[in-house]
Known about the structure:
Layout: H1 2-8, H2 22-41, E1 53-58, E2 61-66, H3 79-90, H4 103-109, E3 119-123, E4 130-134, H5 136-142, H6 144-151, E5 160-163, H7 168-180, E6 183-184, H8 190-199, H9 203-215, H10 222-231, H11 235-247, H12 249-254, H13 263-270, H14 279-296, H15 303-310, H16 324-329, H17 339-350, E7 370-373, E8 375-379, E9 392-398, E10 402-410, E11 417-427, E12 430-441, E13 447-458, E14 464-471, E15 478-482, E16 485-488, E17 491-497, E18 514-518
Parallel strand pairs: 2-6, 3-5
Antiparallel strand pairs: 1-2, 3-4, 7-18, 8-15, 9-14, 9-17, 10-13, 10-18, 11-12, 11-14, 16-17
Helix pairs in contact: 1-6, 5-6, 7-8, 8-9, 10-11, 14-15
Amino acid sequence: MSNFYNKVSLAYTKPMNKRMTLQEISQASQWINGEINDTLSVNSYGMPQSGSTVSQRENSSFLPVTQPASAPTSPVGSPVSQLLSDLSNITLDPNWQAIKSTVRERNAAMFNNDLMADIYFVVGNPGHTQRIPSHKYILATGSSVFYAMFYGGLADTKEEIEVPDVEPTAFLTLLRYLYCDEIQLEPDTVLATLYVAKKYIVPHLARACVNYLETSLTAKNACLLLSQSRLFEEPELMQRCWEVIDAQAEIALHSDGFVDIDADTLQSVLGRETINCKETILWEAAMNWASAECSRREIEPTPSNKRQVLDSALYLLRLPAMSLEEFANGPAQMGMLTLEETVDLFLHYTASNKPRLTYPTKPRIGLKPQTCHRFQSCAYRSNQWRYRGRCDSIQFSVDRRVFIVGFGLYGSSTGASDYTVKIELKRLGRILAENNTKFFSDGSSNTFHVYFAHPVQVDPELFYTASAILDGAELSYFGQEGLSEINAGCVTFQFQCSSESTNGTGVQGGQIPELIFYGPISENH
């Protein structure tokens, strides 16, 4: 054990061996902050609004995790600093111990308190530091790194320790957990808190940070969070990011944060087999990243410089998977390719004797849409199913996260007909996606698929409303013998009637016979 503590004790003397600086982590946190606030402030996703408190279970114990209403960038004048002042004032009473009935309350009174402090930390970048008092015993009981630092074979006898790679607010969040058994996370410091939790090996705090980030994950911040999850070696968060990026690739690749990912993450994205978008979207994203990287390196974003910063990542783009027209109007005219590469690619499209290429020729697999069929049969009658501007609607929930792509609908029962349709997906009255589109019904009892512009994330254990308003042939097929619970692959769907349904659709029968989605696939497939 002594060798372990001797090695761990070295951790506090230098920053973690990571690629990002404290400033870069702070910048990433500030960028993600807007996305987290957007998510937390919208209760339609079922997440707590700002200012709410949720509990997390670990080893059958409950620990409050607070998401404050404000997210101060400095402890000065913030609710945190006010609480610290209040705790310090408590111990001004010479008999303060008498009014604290538990060990937790007495330890909490020592949080950020000079009373009996036997170690001080100077935290933050030079010029923006904060001197924080602490107590070795409390720190050592909560972290093996602190134990090695104060009581191990290489214990430091200094009374003041500099920690330049950690933000003061993040360090105070760590201390709050060690002293008070409370985790208070804020959008603009959650990444910095994850960093300090990893640095000092405090796994429960790190897990709380990851959970917090998962609740804020959207297509707009998935690429940047993927970069951070790789940095912090969080495989579960990485997997969640990949699920979002694969299903909502176009939104993710066009997001502002994509250009800020590191080069290794860029290569992972460009080499991804299951990413679900056209190759032209990946090309555009790579060009945008290259321009931003040129700016970071303070060089002109010329085609040659962009090719240089992309390096081997360029050869992960599957240019031959583009159509001839897409290639001719895009990459072929941008000056990024050599003359030989351009000629070889044109020959690949047009010649029977195709040249050997340095770019992958096989298209990406992408994601395979799955379908949830909710009726066991369908029928038609001479006076059903009619459309006069009324809404067919059904509510559903899932037990695993999926991405709704569109709906399957019934068409005409009186011969071929064109339909116009407005489809919507809502949560608690808020429209998450809608589309006005058309489909042709050939007069059969088959279903006809209509799609949203982009897949829509649907979280587990929450009810969503699928709606359709059709206009076309007066009579159509309709479903019957509907089921309230259906297993579609690895996902269980539950259905219930919607108060918005004014055309008769319900669980037992009606329209919207199918939900089309991306989701986890069983190992048998």
